[in-house]
Design goal:
Distance between the termini: 19 Å
Helix content: 25-40%
Largest sheet: 4 strands, parallel
Radius of gyration: 13 Å
Order of helices and strands: EHEHEEEHEH
Shape: globular
Strand content: 15-25%
Length: about 110
């Protein structure tokens, strides 16, 4: 697929829950978009029905979000491009929700 949405859930269960809600809203308003969940291994902690909302789940390299073993969330955003696999990519913070189709964002 040419267009993908990326959602991150690292180090905090609340981000994982928000990511599930965001992915569900993407599927509702923009069902043709491919959704990738970037995580730290927490994916298996969510129910299989919620896992199915994502098209793909990728474990993030710990070095991309830690510094001396300390969590650095901003550091990961500098490494996002290494995880993008589509021709057009959109990163959305997990603590967001869609209220309409986001396909027009790709055209602007």
């Amino acid at each position: 697929m040419a267009r993908g949405v990326y959602i991150v859930g690292l180090k905090d269960k609340s981000y994982v829950n928000w990511a599930v809600n965001l992915a569900a809203s993407v599927k509702l308003y923009s069902p043709d978009l491919f959704i990738t969940f970037l995580h730290d291994g927490c994916f298996t902690s969510i129910p299989s029905e919620e896992q199915a909302i994502f098209d793909k789940a990728v474990i993030v390299n710990e070095e991309h979000y830690t510094d001396d073993k300390e969590f650095q969330p901003g550091k990961f955003k500098l490494h996002l491009y290494e995880y993008f696999e589509h021709e057009e990519n959109l990163f959305i913070d997990a603590d967001s929700i869609l209220i309409k189709d986001i396909l027009p964002l790709f055209d602007s």
